[in-house]
Amino acid sequence: MTKAGYERLEAELRRLKNEERPAVIQAIAEARAHGDLSENAEYHAAKERQGWIESQIIELEDKYSRAQVIDVSKMNGSADSAVKFGATVTLADEDTEEEKSWQIVGDYEADVREGKISISSPIARALIGKTEGDVVEVAAPGGARSYEIVRVEYK
């Protein structure tokens, strides 16, 4: 995972533990004060929320403890370097000539809207090990697409 992804994971874990957990505990206490718990919808909703928060904390703690942080800025960025984790790759669609840039990141931090694709995605798997000028074919839901690697950067 990249350093930015690790910091985002750490912030989300801290938010769940320091904000969400205390808030749901307070909501449970308030719902209990209303009396009969068997027919108390607020109580049951708060308990369900508490279960979800606790499962999220467990999942994030597991990811956090097993994370291997890679500082992309210290990686080799020469023009002839092969695509690897952390690379920002500019691709040109062979059919439309449209260019797009994607950074290859860990599964947890992937977000297509931010231009970050998962290392386990079909396009990232096709790019790994390739260099500038190579043409890759990617199996997409709408059929196979061909892309030329225009630029490989590590930033």
From TrEMBL:
GO molecular function: DNA binding; RNA polymerase binding; translation elongation factor activity
Top-level taxon in the UniProt lineage: Bacteria
Keywords: DNA-binding, Elongation factor, Protein biosynthesis, Transcription, Transcription regulation
InterPro entries per record: GreA/GreB_C_sf (IPR036953), TF_GreA/GreB_CS (IPR018151), Tscrpt_elong_fac_GreA (IPR006359), Tscrpt_elong_fac_GreA/B (IPR028624), Tscrpt_elong_fac_GreA/B_C (IPR001437), Tscrpt_elong_fac_GreA/B_fam (IPR023459), Tscrpt_elong_fac_GreA/B_N (IPR022691), Tscrpt_elong_fac_GreA/B_N_sf (IPR036805)
Presence of the UniProt keyword Transcription in the record: yes
The keyword Transcription regulation belongs to this UniProt entry's keyword annotation: yes
Domain Transcription elongation factor GreA/GreB N-terminal: 1-69
Stretches assigned to the Transcription elongation factor GreA/GreB C-terminal domain: 81-154
GO terms, biological process: DNA-templated transcription elongation; regulation of DNA-templated transcription elongation
Function: Necessary for efficient RNA polymerase transcription elongation past template-encoded arresting sites. The arresting sites in DNA have the property of trapping a certain fraction of elongating RNA polymerases that pass through, resulting in locked ternary complexes. Cleavage of the nascent transcript by cleavage factors such as GreA or GreB allows the resumption of elongation from the new 3'terminus. GreA releases sequences of 2 to 3 nucleotides.
Family according to the record: Belongs to the GreA/GreB family.
Protein name: Transcription elongation factor GreA
Species annotation: Amphiplicatus metriothermophilus
